[in-house]
Amino acid sequence: MCQYLPKQSTMREWWVQVGLLCIPLMAVYVHMPPPKLSFAVRRWQHAGKTFTFRGNKIFYIDTPGTLGNTDIVLLLHGYPASSYDWSKIWHQLTQHFIRVIALDFLGFGLSDKPLPHNYSIFEQASVVEALVVELGLANQRINLVAHDYGDTVALELVYRRDQNRTGHLNIKSLCLSNGGLFPEVNYPRLLQRLLKDSTYLAPVLLRIGNYMFFNNGMREVFGPYTKPTNAELWNMWVSIRYNDGHLVLDSLLQYINQRIKHRERWVGALTTTSVPLHLIYGPMDPVNPHPEFIELYKKLVKRSTVTVLNEYIGHYPQLEDPIGFLAAYLKFIHSF
Q: What is the pTM of this model?
């Protein structure tokens, strides 16, 4: 057996050398500057403005539309993206509404991303209310369109509206899309579960994560024939990395636990409100799968109308099928 000791010792020395080399390389990687904003996202940024909410800058974009119309639409994006999610239907919306507005929630996109910070759905709803006041729209009736994370923010706004809690947002209608409205039929991705629940692992994962992991993970939630292009995913990635946003992803993900804790409040608001409701749903969504999600929605939310898009549309219907999404939404708006 002694004849193998030199070889084992050499192998141990080799692994030690590799480990010592990896430490400075990892340090360099972790401290690499974020990628520059893409041309498309910079153009989006230049079209928008910021306002201050509790000491933090919130990015928003407010585009005038058709003067003959009096309706205003406000769009609420999902996790982990930004208002740029609505870019594929933005111009078309301006042809049907007098104003088209979207914001980046605190911690997302081009808004500030304070760390440490206890991000919550309640705070994001207050951000939306503050924007409405900032724009002088507190007395205007506003149509809300929401996706994913934005769905839950919208339900908190509906709850406040119905309970006369703040009165800053007069909701004319609400259109939801592919959000985890019901925790019992919502299945977060593995990485999301690790980030939201692992106190020690999450900081490591956030710092070593890169565009390759992001690219692979995002493609999983799109339909098989509607995968985003590399340029589209890069637009998402640079928006996340802006202001070191990748370091707050675990804090933002606490919304999943908040959905569970406050299910009665938000599902209750959804099932009892008098606000006109519509759901646009991509059925090939692994996070809110068909038919579980849609069957429960129809069972509990009887006042809502529903559009189920092509069977191959996934979690991002406004990006995967912008024409179908827009047609469904305008049909809903014209119905009342």
A: 0.89
